[in-house]
Amino acid sequence: SNNSDLILRLPKVELHVHIEGTLTPELRWKLAQRHGVPPRFGGTEADFESVQDLRKAHDNVVSSAQIRTPEQARTLVTFSQAYYSGFEYLKTKNDFFDLAMNYFQLAATMNVRYCEPFFDAQGHTSRGVAWEDMMEGFREAQERASGELNVHSSWIMCILRDQSPESAMDHYKEALRYKDMIIGIGLDSNELNRPPNLFEEVYTLARKDGFKITAHCDVGVEDTHEHIRQVASTIAGTGLDRLDHGLHVADERRLLELVAGRSVPMTICPWAYLRRETYDSIAERLRLLFDAGIKMCISSDSPVYMDESWVTHNLLLAQKMGGFTDAEMVQIARSAVDMSWAKPAVKKAID
Ligand code: ADE
Ligand code: ZN
């Protein structure tokens, strides 16, 4: 048995995956047909003649950090354009069911036993989608996956940080009605000049109401060290319950000690970072986080718009980058189970 065998067989937990980032070109094609609309794909005005053409376009999605010239800005499809262009195909309960079920089925093939997918409610309600259609579609898929695929889950509603704190609060209040299926409140989208502190009021309320709370602090973002500091120490009194990404923790001893000292677990998505930073810089930080004793969950982020790098690939990459032994990978997998917000019975079944 070699390394990849171990990673393939491992019962997995995935705690950083955007459900909208799992919309495959095949599913986008099917939904376009369902609604009688052209299968468009971010940025470009091109219409696609076949599902194969659509899939080829997915392989060329770039990170905005890779755009250097006006010509590139005109011709390349960025992650943001690609990701958000998929939203318009999600209209009915059936669409949300298909989106979630498609991910759960893929997750089952990768031996994912528990996951906490993010969803971007504001990106759907703003287009007139009814809460009931979105949530009941998710719920039906969640129940089917749990019963038929042995893939268990809880949802995390992400606040879009580029929208207003008022919009965040309105959506939070709606989410309360689905507290039986939503375990946590997160923070995603464009991070520039949008520190987590802007959403302090929602976070404080969410903790009081019994939700878990987390936030993205993505790589390569200006002010990320200050964002991490807020997440790890001040928001909602003592800081959040988890840190999504936060790789730059490893840049400063002060931050490393803060995160390790407060035992803030982190979700780490190696392939997403490799799209914008060098291999060595990521590898070095990964090892520093592990050696500091920080719990981490290796995850895929938005795999369809990141070269179809799913959780298994991210685990293999993490092992190579961090130079982790098989025993250390098992330790990482165990810490992912431990840091998850699964019910004790589910945790016990995976471990
Ligand atoms: N929404 C979906 N994927 C995201 C990412 N990687 N960063 C920020 N917001 C996102
Ligand atoms: Zn993310």
Give descriptors for this structure.
alpha/beta, 17 helices, 48% helix, binds adenine, binds zinc ion
Could you explain the architecture of this structure?
With 351 residues, the protein is an alpha/beta fold. Helix content is 48%, strand content 11%. It is built from 17 helices and 10 strands. The chain has a 7-stranded parallel beta sheet with strand order 3-5-6-7-8-9-10. A 3-stranded parallel beta sheet has the order 1-2-4. Helix 6 (93-109) runs parallel beside helix 8 (131-149) and helix 14 packs across helix 15. The longest helix has 19 residues, at 131-149. It is globular, with a radius of gyration of 19 Å. The relative contact order is 0.13. It binds adenine (ADE) and zinc ion (ZN).
Protein structure class: alpha/beta
**Distance separating the two termini:** 21 Å
Shape label: globular
What ligands does this structure carry? adenine, zinc ion
- The strand order across the widest sheet is 3-5-6-7-8-9-10
Helix content: 40-55%
Instruction: Please give the radius of gyration in angstroms.
Output: 19 Å
Number of strands: 10
Mean pLDDT: 95
Total helical segments = 17
Strand content: 5-15%
Major beta-sheet overview = 7 strands, parallel
- The low-pLDDT segments are none
User: Topology as H/E string?
Assistant: HEHHHHHEEHHEEHEHEHEHEHHEHHH
Strand and helix layout:
Elements (H helix, E strand, L loop, with lengths): L2 H7 L2 E3 L10 H11 L15 H8 L11 H6 L3 H7 L7 H17 L2 E4 L2 E2 L2 H4 L5 H19 L2 E2 L1 E6 L4 H11 L6 E7 L11 H9 L3 E6 L6 H11 L7 E4 L7 H9 L4 E3 L1 H5 L4 H13 L4 E3 L12 H12 L3 H14 L4 H7 L1
Helix pairs in contact: 6-8, 14-15
The protein binds adenine and zinc ion.
